[in-house]
């Protein structure tokens, strides 16, 4: 897979593709930010996406957002990167089905966003 540049564009010998008017980087940015929502993670788990090896590989690929040149694009880098890191763990991918885990993460996310203001 080609990696995005610091401007969010993909380095490739071919012209950058557009998906519904958005670049691949823009779509990946939107998706990775959604991972900060514990209820969304629960939904992904309930759809069994977190058991799919291809989806797990995609989550691993998205770790490029941990690099400072990409982190700067995240609205809430703390919760987003924390969720992305937790999703690398098989145990977490199973435990996110628990309503108690979801509620705990939602509380943590809310507290961290309040502290950030």
Secondary structure layout plus pairing:
Layout: H1 24-34, H2 38-46, H3 53-61, H4 68-71, H5 77-86, H6 90-95, H7 99-116
Protein traits:
globular, mainly alpha
Short description:
The chain is built from seven helices and no strands.
Measured between the Cα atoms of the first and last residue, the distance is 36 Å
Classify the helix fraction into a percent range: 55-70%
Oligomer classification: single chain
What spatial form do the alpha-carbon principal axes imply? globular
Overall average pLDDT: 88
Number of strands: 0
Radius of gyration, CA atoms, in whole angstroms = 15 Å
Q: How much of the residues is beta strand, in percent?
A: under 5%
Computed structural class: mainly alpha
**Tally of separate helices:** 7
Q: Please trace the helix and strand order, writing H or E for each element.
A: HHHHHHH
Low-confidence stretches: none
Biggest pleated-sheet summary: none
Kindly describe this structure.
- The chain has 7 helices and no strands.
- By secondary structure, the protein is mainly alpha-helical.
- 21% of the residues are buried.
